[in-house]
Amino acid sequence: MKRKASETAAKTTGQILRDNICTLFNLLNLLIAIALIFVHAWSNLFFVPVVALNTIIGIAQELKAKRLIEKLTLLSQSNAKIERNGELRSVPIAEVQEQDILLLESGNQICADAVVTDGGIEVNESLLTGESDVSTKRQAIPCCPAVLLSAAPAVPLSSVWAVTATPPS
């Protein structure tokens, strides 16, 4: 079962434009401007360029932030070291499949549920189990495999794990 890469949570350009243009502040200023035009008070309309500039600056800042988030997302995408069909590879985490052999080292984020096939590892599962202590996972007897849950960060040692399940996309 192959998972799809998650999309960024950043807003689209259209959403940014809509969120900055369609605001209560802009609506009230538009109504005031229309009322001033209706009574021919042209000299009192000098606030309109300020409101427009405020909206333009807000849009520009949010678009710049969106571009930075997209760049950082590309930089922070991590890869998993796996063995697939006897070949060692480094693949994006979204491409890890069941039956892949996952090679974990210190600091790796566990990207899928797995059982140990070789070696051992210390895992901080506090986010998943509430247990504050680091637990050691080692190769066990076949009837009772050491199970590693996804999302837990690995602590020192290195090990080899067989992926048993990937998180839903």
Architecture overview:
- The chain is an alpha+beta fold and 169 residues long.
- 34% of the residues lie in helices and 25% in strands.
- It contains four helices and eight strands.
- It has helices spanning 13-21, 24-38, 47-76, 126-129; strands spanning 79-84, 87-92, 101-104, 113-123, 135-138, 147-148, 154-155, 159-165.
- Strands 1, 2, 3, 4, 5, 6, 7 and 8 form an eight-stranded antiparallel β-sheet that branches.
- Helix 1 runs antiparallel to helix 3 (47-76).
- The termini are close together.
Please render the helix and strand layout as text.
Elements: H1 13-21, H2 24-38, H3 47-76, E1 79-84, E2 87-92, E3 101-104, E4 113-123, H4 126-129, E5 135-138, E6 147-148, E7 154-155, E8 159-165
Antiparallel strand pairs: 1-2, 1-3, 3-8, 4-5, 4-6, 4-7, 4-8
Helix pairs in contact: 1-3
Task: Considering the chains and any ligands shown, give keywords for the structure.
169 residues; alpha+beta; eight-stranded antiparallel β-sheet; 4 helices; disordered N terminus
* Helix count, DSSP H or I runs of 4 or more residues: 4
Fraction of residues in helix? 25-40%
The run of helices and strands is HHHEEEEHEEEE
Report the β-strand fraction as a percent range.
Answer: 15-25%
Mean pLDDT: 78
Radius of gyration: 27 Å
Distance between the termini: 10 Å
C-alpha geometry: rod-shaped
Low-confidence stretches: 1-6
